Amino acid sequence: MKYKAMIAALSLLFLSSCLTDPWGDYGYPESNYKPILMERSSLESSVKLVDPQAIKNFGKIYRYNDLLFINEVYEGVHIINNADPANPVNIGFITIPGNIDIAIKNDYIYADNAVDLIVIAYDGQNVQVVDRNREVFPELPAPDGYYSSDLNERPENTIIVKWKEK
């Protein structure tokens, strides 16, 4: 009889451990990614034309005239002179934190700058943000789709510009 009572008590102990929420207080697993934040003022002054960069994590490719614009996910856009397709030349990089997509129309580049939509004029030598529509897009979600507790103590006026694996 004592043996059966002991087995029943142990069984209840093991079963009760299954009743706790394995995903914590948020109802889903913790993300394996950490958000990289940027202050809004820094975000708005971050779009610049810099020297060519190596392509590491490319996204979408956009062809306009003799140029290729290749998205570097979360970082910006490579500009490639493709006048001679056998010998493309990397001519510059536009830093656009939080960038995933671009479009080009009438010589203007339309890009997402994290949560903002920006319009960029590029004249072959310089870039200038000619328009900015704030908070048009939702914040960038973690790549695995889960919540990051790193956002619990997030400073004010910050925006997620990319995610890094923990």
Structure notes:
This protein is mainly beta and 166 residues long. 13% of the residues lie in helices and 41% in strands. The protein is built from two helices and eleven strands. The chain has helices at 2-17, 40-44, and strands at 33-39, 48-50, 58-64, 67-72, 76-81, 89-95, 102-105, 108-113, 116-122, 127-133, 158-165. It has a five-stranded antiparallel beta sheet, with no helix packed on it. It has a four-stranded antiparallel beta sheet with strand order 7-8-9-10, with no helix packed on it. A hairpin with a 2-residue loop joins strand 7 (102-105) and strand 8 (108-113).
Our measurement of the CA-to-CA distance between the termini, rounded to an integer number of angstroms, reads 51 Å
Category by helix and strand content: mainly beta
Mean pLDDT: 89
Helical content, roughly?
10-25%
Order of strands across the widest beta sheet?
A: 2-6-5-4-3
Biggest sheet, in brief?
5 strands, antiparallel
Sum up the overall morphology in one term: elongated
- Counted beta strands: 11
- Tell me what portion of residues adopts beta-strand conformation: 35-45%
- Number of helix segments? 2
Which runs of at least 5 residues are low in confidence (pLDDT < 50)?
none
How large, in whole angstroms, is the Cα Rg?
A: 24 Å
Order of helices and strands: HEHEEEEEEEEEE
